[in-house]
Design brief:
This protein has 346 residues and is an alpha+beta fold. The protein has 3 domains: 66 residues, Uridine Diphospho-n-acetylenolpyruvylglucosamine Reductase, domain 2, CATH 3.30.43.10; 113 residues, Uridine Diphospho-n-acetylenolpyruvylglucosamine Reductase, domain 3 (2-Layer Sandwich), CATH 3.30.465.10; 105 residues, UDP-N-acetylenolpyruvoylglucosamine reductase, C-terminal domain (Uridine Diphospho-n-acetylenolpyruvylglucosamine Reductase, domain 1). Helices cover 27% and strands 27% of the residues. It has 9 helices and 20 strands. The strands form 6 sheets. A 5-stranded antiparallel sheet has the order 6-7-12-10-11. Strand 18 and strand 19 form a beta hairpin.
Length: 346
Amino acid sequence: MQILENYSLRELNTFGFEASARYFAEAHCSADVVEALRFVRALDLSLLVLGEGSNVVLVSDLPGLVLKLANSGIEVVGDAGNSVTIRVGAGQNWHELVRWCLDQGYFGIENLSLIPGSVGAAPVQNIGAYGVELKDVFHSLEAVDRETLEVVTLNGDDCQFAYRDSLFKGEARGRYIICHVNLTLSMLPEVNTRYGAIAVEIERLGLVLTPQSVSAAVCQLRSSKLPDPAEIGNAGSFFKNPVIEDAQRAELQQQFPDLVAYSDVPGYSKLAAGWLIEQCGWKGVREADIGVHAKQALVLVNYGVGQAEDLLALAERIKESVQQRFAVTLEMEPTIYPVSPVYPTP
């Protein structure tokens, strides 16, 4: 494994913020991960593991080692009649995986089409969209334990999945470096169109209802609302949809009859963060090269050479306005690096 010095990360984060790593390396297998861990231990360095940089905000240069997971590849490791289990490298592009599965006749993640990022990042965030979450198809994962330098296998219960949350964002933050993810997918072409916009979009496109048409509809919906990071720097949804008690939802609906809300677990409801932000007047706001996307208020963008500090300052003002008007607290989705007292790890 080659370790480079003073390596630019501008092309490795989807916001396109300029930052450099004191040391940089790519890991193509778990042995490379272990080697990288021994390196940071020997020099007492910090470590940031990157996939495709689609859920991070790089505020300044990173003093330690940035390790990019570059192990891609997909293989079938189990077959149980109407289902199949696949093993995927952490560095595999997520959307390419979705397309490959559809081509093979493996179904269950088509609703997660066009989500940016790598497979290794998917369990950390428990990615979800259009009525499906990763946990719905998750089998297990293989990771290097930073404490023991051993490869361990964690199942769904171990991972403690919740809405946009997991073990890897909670009590075990930073302990495990995910190397492979195992998913169990159906070989039956069942579809999930509970999210109303999908069925409407399939009809508008004139398609027959299949997993492939669900994927096409999701891609069309996402493309119509979310900017391509290759064209406008962004990290997708910048804020989580807040979950509140049903009693608070009822109070808000009395004040705001058009409130966009969905039932969540019993006793709780999920609010559309984009709607809250739009009602506060932020949609389409631009301040120099930083702003809120004109088509989706949930997306903060870097139009060119904007600064991470300005983006985070804008995010804080958005949070304050939503709190003041709706008494609802927004939580940012991306992780901020380097962690500091000013920008603590959430």
